[in-house]
Amino acid sequence: xxxxxxxxxxxxxxxxxxxxxxxxxxxxxxxxxxxxxxxxxxxxxxxxxxxxxxxxxxxxxxxxxxxxxxxxxxxxxxxxx
Length: 81
Known about the structure:
Layout: H1 4-7, H2 18-44, H3 51-67, H4 73-80
Helix pairs in contact: 2-3, 3-4
C-alpha cells in the first residue's frame, strides 16, 4: 500500500482539468519534438541512416503532427505518448 502522504502524487481516475492537461501535453510534445530533432540528426550521419531509421523517424514526425493537430484530447494524447 502507498502511504497517504505519497498517494496525492499518484494519478487519480477521471479526466484532468483542461489547463493541467494542456500544460502536460505541451511538455510531452516538446520532448517528442526534441526526440525528432535527434533522430533526424542521426539519420543524416553518413553510414547511420537506412530505410528502417527513416521509417522510424517518419513515424515520430507523424505522431508529433497528430499530437499538435486540432483533433480530440484522447487522440492527441495517444499520438504524443
